[in-house]
Write a structure and sequence with these properties.
This protein is of the alpha+beta class and about 80 residues long. The protein has one helix and four strands. The longest helix has 14 residues.
Length: about 80
């Protein structure tokens, strides 16, 4: 496959879709290697809240998050974005 750069130094290929990410490696002889990066999806569990008889929203029995898990998730997210 051959790709030609436009005047804004962009390349397009038939296999790449918008949003795909590639690792670019340029060797000493000028050869360019594009390696597709696999995006890890972090699935967040969804818990539907329920209302008690007083109208307060609560977690269903047995579905409440653990304090240690919340702390670990916050710490992981903070460390990832620093």
């Amino acid at each position: 496959m051959t790709a030609i750069a436009d005047n804004k130094k962009r390349l397009s290929t038939n296999t790449a879709k918008p949003g795909h990410r590639f690792d670019v490696q340029v060797s000493a002889d000028g050869k360019v290697i594009l390696t597709p990066l696999v995006v890890k999806t972090h699935e967040v569990p969804i818990v539907k809240m329920i209302r008690n008889k007083d109208g307060f929203l609560l977690f269903p029995p047995g579905k409440a998050p653990d304090r240690a898990a919340i702390r670990a998730a916050i710490r992981e997210d903070r460390d990832k974005h620093q």
